[in-house]
Amino acid sequence: MDSYRIIQKPLVTEKSTAMQEDGNWLAFRVHPDANKIQIKEAIEKIFDVTVLHVNTLNVRGKAKRFGKNMGVSKGWKKAMLRLKDGDKIEMFEGV
After folding, report:
1. How far apart are CA 82 and CA 55, in angstroms?
2. C-alpha torsion sign, points 30, 19, 58, 52
3. Amino acid 58: pLDDT
4. What's the alpha-carbon Rg for the chain, to the nearest Å?
5. Measured over all CA atoms, what is the biggest interatomic distance in the chain, rounded to whole angstroms?
6. Sign of the torsion angle spanned by Cα atoms 62, 80, 55, 2
7. How much is the average pLDDT of 57-80?
């Protein structure tokens, strides 16, 4: 799988910003079929940083109501990465 298809978008939330300040952790939305090794290699290749830990979790879709019909939004996969001390990704710096 291509590195640019594995990493879909960065997650910039209050919690991910606090994680970044506390321990150099970053959060990304990733392809649901990607494993931890593929995610680590993709981040290291794209951003030229060293990844120490990768934690993943599957986020379940939420129940949504459309008029009288019920539906479920699509689930997705989240990856939280710990970078080596001193490594930074520029897109998270302005947050």
Report:
1. 9
2. positive
3. 97
4. 15
5. 53
6. positive
7. 95
32 three-class SS:
coil
SS3 of 35-92:
CHHHHHHHHHHHHCCCEEEEEEEEECCCEEEECCEEEECCCEEEEEEEECCCCCCHHH
Which amino acid, residue 35? N
Residue with tokens 């939004």: 73
Structurally, at CATH architecture level, domain 3-85 sits in 2-Layer Sandwich (3.30)
> pLDDT digit string (tens) for 4-56?
999 999 999 999 889 988 888 999 999 999 999 999 999 999 999 999 999 99
pLDDT band, residue 92 (cuts 50/70/90): low
CA distances from 88 to 20, 56, 71, 78 (A): 10, 20, 40, 19
